[in-house]
């Protein structure tokens, strides 16, 4: 009820504020239109605009993406879309370098990612320890922002149109198309912040980031184009950890351990890691003599990163004092290589539009572990190890056809779209060097913080899928548009699925329309979820524990009660209202998403009878299971008003909000197939809370953009709602309170083709709620800020940017 009241209140305030703005500007020149942007996502009918769409679609322009201090696409989207969240976790292994995002509070792998309308490959990394736990998602930060023409976000279930993963919606990156011109942009910024922590306070300048990006258009034949984009980014680490003190150290006979040589020092690093990446992307199209178009696009990124693990004290049993007399902070250095290439031909043959395409993508992650050791090797241990590789490959072949069919009685031809898709996926795990996983009984095995993949962990698994679809859409009359889609898919590893969607839009007046849809959807279990196996360090009840993730068909997982994974299935309901008048547009869309058989990672199982099954040195186990059903429901509200004035310039005001709530049902808390007595609790309050309260239940964005002659500016305020952080002991639960983040930027064009900008993200240097259990007597928690903090915890970021175009 409180959510509904808040929704109605927000809608009323938005309408009143924007209507007032419209009234004040009624004598001004004709406002700049924002409703006539043509979309290609969610429809296969040409010419549909944002407000004519049968489901909510957001269009984020290249200028919107660039008007932010960050040069990461995911982070820019998080401050443009109220239903999109991109937290910034730390000390989470490879996830520090490949961070997942969420749409409508659902898992990162429940949103389908497209580039130029073609399915994008996911990352080889499986997120295990933080937001998006258990998901392998597309890394949108592999796409340089200079290559982007626009981003379309469909906020509706679309499995019947696009296939697996489109439960929460679809994000389609449309690449820039240019045969001439170009530009270069250099951005430099740093976090300039005051950090007030329980044991210390300090002024910090860190996280220095330099980004140089550019694009250029070249003609191909008379009508063709080639657009090449490149980006170099170098981001330094941030650290929001507090000092270790004498009270934090283990005691021997009531006194501090004499092997600890110093107190009150900054042993931990809790924040962003170092990242250096180079990205290149090309997009091309050539008109052929027969009227068809030959097109292609390709991308490549090389990313070198450094993140940090848990600090090992001098007296830690996992340390070798002769190597690290003061203890050590192990480092994970993922080297990520990502590339994709695709192309096809499209045209018209006797009124039948066709599009044949092939896209192949690969993502590999090589793990190098440094500033560490293998305790089992003693004084002879190296301090650097190669811990192995993850790899994912995907090939997608599409044949798509569209034909308008004139039917008496319809206001427009019936748009008939049909096609087929073949997809092949391959997932691999490669072993590290022997020293990275070697172990002896009684001593910690492998490279500390990330033991290497062992030969028995190696995986080389593939699968194929085939699918076909039919999509119909037509204007029944001047007011009513309807569409329907069906899709059949067959997977080599779990069987087939059939999905359908029905949508409609009714135009009540020229300025008001209703729209709605109902659809079924699915998400196939990823190869990662079925076959991943590895060991990593996880804090369980404030104790660092080597935790094994086991494939569902492994003997250990079977003993714990695992079963072959089934696909997630969903039913999506959506109903919305669209209001528009001149430059004013307001959309309100309610949704309900029911998902059965959600694939989630079990608890970290460390009961004595579980540990007895595990390899030496491993103190907990986990595996994937169809753990629960869920219901997600909420409301999206987006209001825009654009207007021009004679003397003050052009303005665009935005007010947007998302309200969402997720509840798990039919939770598989224990499994009767387990051979253990008592059977372990597979899914309990921490993981339930991660799904139900681990992302904000509401989020507001208010913005104002202004341009006048050679001047420009923007101010944006984003409010992130509460997030609850649950612990194994309910007494240690706490809430991350609502947080406001204000961004501001000003720009000036001093030369004909050169523009300068300065700005600040998080202008007022706000931080999320600190963990009140940071230093409780029941066991010190090393993290002051939670990885679930929706705005991160790095403080103010100040930047400058210069852009040159030609």
UniProtKB/TrEMBL annotation:
<keyword id="KW-0732">Signal</keyword>
<dbReference type="InterPro" id="IPR036942">
    <property type="entry name" value="Beta-barrel_TonB_sf"/>
</dbReference>
<feature type="domain" description="TonB-dependent receptor plug">
    <location>
        <begin position="52"/>
        <end position="170"/>
    </location>
</feature>
<comment type="similarity">
    <text>Belongs to the TonB-dependent receptor family.</text>
</comment>
<keyword id="KW-0813">Transport</keyword>
<protein>
    <submittedName>
        <fullName>TonB-dependent receptor</fullName>
    </submittedName>
</protein>
<dbReference type="InterPro" id="IPR037066">
    <property type="entry name" value="Plug_dom_sf"/>
</dbReference>
<keyword id="KW-0675">Receptor</keyword>
<dbReference type="Pfam" id="PF00593">
    <property type="entry name" value="TonB_dep_Rec_b-barrel"/>
</dbReference>
<feature type="signal peptide">
    <location>
        <begin position="1"/>
        <end position="25"/>
    </location>
</feature>
<feature type="domain" description="TonB-dependent receptor-like beta-barrel">
    <location>
        <begin position="227"/>
        <end position="763"/>
    </location>
</feature>
<dbReference type="GO" id="GO:0009279">
    <property type="term" value="C:cell outer membrane"/>
</dbReference>
<dbReference type="Pfam" id="PF07715">
    <property type="entry name" value="Plug"/>
</dbReference>
<dbReference type="InterPro" id="IPR012910">
    <property type="entry name" value="Plug_dom"/>
</dbReference>
<keyword id="KW-0998">Cell outer membrane</keyword>
<keyword id="KW-0798">TonB box</keyword>
<dbReference type="InterPro" id="IPR000531">
    <property type="entry name" value="Beta-barrel_TonB"/>
</dbReference>
<dbReference type="InterPro" id="IPR039426">
    <property type="entry name" value="TonB-dep_rcpt-like"/>
</dbReference>
<keyword id="KW-0812">Transmembrane</keyword>
<keyword id="KW-0472">Membrane</keyword>
<keyword id="KW-1134">Transmembrane beta strand</keyword>
């Amino acid at each position: 009820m409180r959510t509904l009241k808040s929704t109605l209140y927000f809608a009323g305030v938005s309408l009143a504020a924007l209507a007032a703005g419209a009234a004040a500007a009624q004598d001004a020149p004709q406002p700049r239109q924002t409703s006539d942007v043509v979309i290609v996502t969610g429809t296969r009918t040409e010419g549909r605009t944002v407000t004519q769409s049968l489901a909510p679609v957001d269009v984020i322009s290249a200028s919107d993406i660039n008007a932010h201090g960050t040069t990461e696409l995911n982070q820019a989207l998080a401050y443009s879309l109220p239903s999109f969240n991109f937290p910034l976790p730390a000390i989470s292994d490879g996830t520090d370098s490949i961070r997942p995002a969420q749409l409508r509070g659902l898992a990162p792998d429940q949103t389908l990612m497209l580039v130029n309308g073609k399915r994008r490959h996911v990352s080889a990394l499986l997120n295990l320890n933080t937001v998006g736990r258990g998901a392998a998602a597309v890394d949108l930060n592999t796409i340089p922002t200079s290559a982007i023409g626009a981003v379309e976000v469909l906020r509706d279930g679309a499995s019947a149109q696009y296939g697996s993963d489109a439960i929460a919606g679809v994000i389609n990156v449309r690449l820039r198309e240019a045969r001439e011109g170009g530009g270069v942009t250099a951005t430099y910024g740093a976090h300039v912040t005051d950090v007030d922590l329980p044991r210390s306070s300090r002024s910090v300048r860190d996280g220095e980031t330099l980004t140089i990006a550019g694009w250029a258009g070249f003609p191909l034949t008379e009508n063709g184009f080639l657009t090449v984009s490149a980006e170099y980014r170098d981001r330094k680490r941030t650290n929001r950890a507090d000092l270790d003190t004498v009270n934090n150290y283990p005691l021997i006979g009531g006194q501090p351990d004499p092997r600890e040589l110093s107190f009150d020092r900054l042993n931990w690093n809790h924040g962003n890691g170092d990242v250096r990446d180079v990205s290149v992307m090309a997009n091309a199209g050539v008109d052929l003599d027969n009227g068809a178009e030959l097109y292609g696009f390709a991308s490549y990124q090389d990313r070198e990163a450094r993140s940090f693990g848990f600090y090992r004290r001098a007296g830690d049993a996992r340390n070798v004092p002769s190597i690290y007399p003061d203890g050590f902070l192990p480092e994970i250095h993922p080297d990520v290589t990502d590339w994709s290439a695709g192309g096809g031909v499209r045209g018209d043959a006797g009124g039948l539009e066709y599009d044949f395409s092939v896209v192949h993508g690969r993502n590999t992650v090589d793990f190098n572990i440094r500033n560490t050791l293998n305790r089992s090797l003693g004084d002879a241990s190296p301090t650097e190890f190669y811990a192995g590789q993850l790899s994912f490959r995907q090939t997608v072949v599409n044949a798509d056809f569209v034909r308008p069919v004139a039917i008496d009685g319809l206001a427009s031809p019936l748009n008939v779209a049909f096609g087929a898709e073949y997809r092949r996926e391959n997932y691999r795990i490669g072993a590290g060097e022997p020293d990275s996983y070697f172990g002896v009984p009684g001593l910690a095995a492998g490279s500390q913080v990330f033991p290497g993949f062992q030969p028995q962990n190696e995986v080389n698994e593939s699968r194929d899928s085939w699918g076909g679809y039919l999509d119909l859409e037509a204007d029944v009359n001047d007011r009513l548009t309807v569409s329907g889609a069906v899709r059949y898919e067959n997977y080599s590893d779990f069987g087939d699925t059939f999905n359908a969607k029905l949508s409609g839009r009714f135009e009540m007046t020229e300025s008001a329309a209703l729209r709605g849809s109902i659809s079924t959807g699915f998400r196939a279990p990823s190869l990662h979820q079925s076959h991943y196996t590895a060991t990593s360090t996880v804090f369980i009840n404030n104790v660092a524990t080597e935790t094994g993730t086991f494939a569902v068909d492994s003997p250990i997982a079977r003993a714990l009660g695992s079963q072959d994974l089934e696909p997630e299935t969903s039913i999506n309901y959506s109903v919305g209202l669209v209001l528009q008048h001149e430059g004013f547009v307001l959309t309100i869309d309610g949704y309900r998403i029911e998902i059965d058989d959600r694939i989630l990672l079990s608890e970290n199982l460390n009961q004595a009878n579980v540990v007895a099954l595990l390899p030496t040195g491993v103190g907990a186990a986990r595996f994937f299971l169809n753990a629960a059903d869920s219901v997600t429901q909420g409301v999206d509200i987006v209001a825009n008003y654009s207007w021009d004035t004679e003397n003050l310039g052009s303005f665009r005001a935005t007010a947007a909000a998302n309200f969402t709530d997720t509840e798990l049902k039919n939770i598989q808390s224990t499994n009767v197939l387990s051979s253990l007595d008592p059977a372990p609790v597979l899914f309990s309050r921490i993981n339930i809370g991660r799904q139900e309260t681990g992302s904000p239940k509401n989020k507001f964005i208010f913005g104002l953009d202004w341009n006048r002659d050679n001047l420009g500016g923007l101010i944006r305020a984003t409010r992130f709602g509460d997030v609850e952080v649950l612990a194994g002991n309910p007494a240690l639960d706490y809430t991350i309170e609502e947080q406001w983040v204000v961004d501001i930027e000003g720009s000036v064009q001093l030369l004909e083709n050169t523009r300068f900008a300065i700005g600040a993200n998080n202008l007022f240097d706000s931080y999320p709620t600190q963990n009140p259990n940071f230093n409780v007597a029941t066991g010190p928690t090393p993290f002051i800020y939670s990885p679930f903090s929706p705005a991160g915890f790095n403080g103010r970021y100040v930047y400058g940017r210069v852009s040159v175009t030609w």
